[in-house]
């Protein structure tokens, strides 16, 4: 079988939410409480998706996911407060309890609705709080790229000066 389809139904938050994981290979260790997916990994949770070469899901004693760690061509598409974000990094970590994504190593995050782009070594996105943190590495700066509508800005400045 080329693809192994695994369907996990979990309580990720206060409400039940279905998580679907597909990959070429799967192995698990119940004693150490983890599942490992390799090859063409795709995770779907609602409208959110995560893609990677490798994914490890850690579980608590009640068999609820507590941490997703994705490596190798790791990318996400998430929806936060009705905005669509795309992200990439060397490693992506998702923590369900706090609804937090950590993009680590050469991280990139783009707000598709406003075309804002953030680059840094690490980016943390807390979906529950709607907060973002970005830091750089060494001499590399954090970079934010966004568009300004000059016509709208000039009109607003003109109306404020009257």
Structural class: mainly beta
Please report the first level of CATH classification, the CATH class: Mainly Beta
- The radius of gyration is 19 Å
Major β-sheet annotation: 11 strands, antiparallel
Span from first to last CA?
71 Å
Overall form: globular
CATH architecture classification name = Sandwich
Question: Your description of this structure?
Answer:
By secondary structure, the protein is mostly beta strands. The protein has one domain: Lipopolysaccharide (LPS) transport protein A like domain (lipopolysaccharide transport protein A fold). The chain has one helix and eleven strands. Strands 1, 2, 3, 4, 5, 6, 7, 8, 9, 10 and 11 form an eleven-stranded antiparallel sheet that branches. Strand 5 and strand 6 form a beta hairpin.
SSE blueprint:
Elements: E1 4-10, E2 17-23, E3 25-29, E4 34-45, E5 48-59, E6 65-80, E7 83-95, E8 100-111, E9 116-126, E10 131-135, E11 143-145, H1 150-161
Antiparallel strand pairs: 1-2, 2-4, 3-4, 4-5, 5-6, 6-7, 7-8, 8-9, 9-10, 9-11
Summarize the structure.
The protein is mostly beta strands and 162 residues long.
Task: Name the features.
162 residues; globular; 1 helix; disordered N terminus; 11-stranded antiparallel β-sheet; lipopolysaccharide transport protein A fold; mainly beta
């Amino acid at each position: 079988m080329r693809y192994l389809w695994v369907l996990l139904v979990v309580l990720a938050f206060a409400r039940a939410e279905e998580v679907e994981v597909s990959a070429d290979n799967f192995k698990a260790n119940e004693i150490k409480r983890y599942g490992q997916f390799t090859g063409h990994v795709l995770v779907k949770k609602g409208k959110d998706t995560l893609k990677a070469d490798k994914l490890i899901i850690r579980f608590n004693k009640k068999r609820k996911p507590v941490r997703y760690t994705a490596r190798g061509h790791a990318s996400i598409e998430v929806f936060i407060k009705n905005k669509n974000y795309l992200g990439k990094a060397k490693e992506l970590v998702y923590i369900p309890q706090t609804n937090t994504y950590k993009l680590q190593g050469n991280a990139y995050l783009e707000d598709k609705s406003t075309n804002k782009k953030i680059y840094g070594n690490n980016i943390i996105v807390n979906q529950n709080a709607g907060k973002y943190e970005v830091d750089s590495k060494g001499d590399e700066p954090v970079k934010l790229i966004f568009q300004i509508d000059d016509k709208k800005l000039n009109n607003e400045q003109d109306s404020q000066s009257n």
